[in-house]
Amino acid sequence: MLPPARLARRRAGLICLVAAPILLTAATAVDPALGDVEFAPAIAADPAAARLHTLLLHWSWVLYVPGLLALLAPVRRRGRVLATIAWPAAVLGLATFAGLTLSDYFGLAVLEVTDEATFAAVEDQVGGYGWLAAGWQIPGMLGWALALLVTPFAAARAGHAGWWYPAAAVPGFVLYLLFAIEEPPLSLAGPVLLVVAHAVLAVRLWSPAAGDDTGAEQAGFAAFRRTLGVCCLVGAPLALAAGMATLPGGAFHIATDMAGDPAAAQASAFFLHLAWLLFVPGIIELTGRLTGRGWRLAQVAGGVAVLGLLHFNGLMLGDYAGIAAEQVLDPARAEAVAARVGEYASLSLGVVLPGMLCALLGLILVPVAAARGGLVRWPVPVVAGLGVVAFFALTVGRVPGLVAPALLLVAYGLLARAVAAPAARPEPAPVTA
To answer: Which residues cross the membrane (predicted)?
Structure first.
């Protein structure tokens, strides 16, 4: 029988696992660029449908991350090799891929402000950015494929799902991969099959007795997750420091013209993306250890933080779009494109607002939950809160910008040390005569 904290965590993941392919089905159904049509004219002819498609697709891949992780969490020794591949693929690669979908908003803005020839020129410019290819596209595409293909086999190998599950889920993903841009109903075959497979699996795993992972902390895969989480809790603020240190401009003044130093702007965008992304596996592992006092706060705080960070890291992709606009377009049209992107309510309300609000609020609430659960002392969430405030208040230059990463490194470094410590084992009950 699962304890309440793990049961709540697993059920939340199962809800995401079912919601993700439903949104994928809806995104495919409203895509205006299906069939034998050219992409640019098709989305320009129906921009509202194009924006809705992008929003649904982005949310689909975001929700797939906690959904797949819920299937991998109870893996012990059997299936640990596959799980060791699938876990980072989902939590890092698939999350990156979700951010890549947001580039369609920028492309649509370029089409609405300029023309198809200019759109092609901007796309070519973005395609030449090495930081984007190596830091986003390659790990994103690879992680997306590995997460969706390997996770079903890992769950089945571990015995938490029957072999019918990969036999249904993997063909569903392959059908989507092959026919995602074909005319319906062919384009919908894969997503619908994924909905059925995940819905059946969620029903079977909903019971508290299903897939009991008691004692999983001692398993080989759990040790890998813990090590990865500890490294990410330290690596995230270090990546944030690198992102702030490489911002174009000087020690006390950040340049507004990113095209003036495109190499630094690209590097900064990558490190900022990496920083918010690395917090995710660390927070998942951290809040997973809080199963006693304050476990409800821990699960809520972790859920808020992870959901926000999965959105927030993808927003850094906009920096590459901004650089390309400044390099290809004249200043007036580049400004018009940026303004048009800001007018998209689906982006601002569906991605930007939940991303920024939940991510930064979660980075404070998670240490609060850890202190409430006795994992760390109360000064730790205070330092974390000061770090979040400094991120907003001290971003005028590279030197002031390093204050926030330094504070977050102290706070989350102490949290990492607490996670790395062996979990306390319950004392055996006294033997009575």
So the answer is: 53-73, 85-108, 128-150, 162-181, 187-206, 227-247, 267-288, 300-324, 344-366, 378-396, 402-420
Number of other CB atoms surrounding residue 275 within 10 Å: 25
Cα 179 to chain centroid, rounded: 25
Residue 368's nearest CA partner among 398, 406, 329, 411 is 411
CA angle, 151 as apex, 149 and 155 as ends, to 5°? 135
DSSP reduced 3-state for 345? helix
Per the CB < 8 A criterion, the answer to whether 337 and 113 are in contact is: yes
Alpha helix stretches (DSSP H) within 128-209: 130-132, 138-157, 164-179, 186-205
Residue 145's pLDDT band (boundaries 50, 70, 90)? very high
- Report residue 389: phi and psi, to 5°: -60, -40
The closest alpha carbon to 419, from 369, 356, 370, belongs to: 370
The predicted pLDDT at position 429 comes to 43
C-alpha–C-alpha distance, residues 384 and 291, integer Å: 22
| The token pair that represents 272 in the structure block | 């900022």
Q: What is the DSSP letter of 34?
A: -
Q: How high is the pLDDT of residue 251?
A: 55
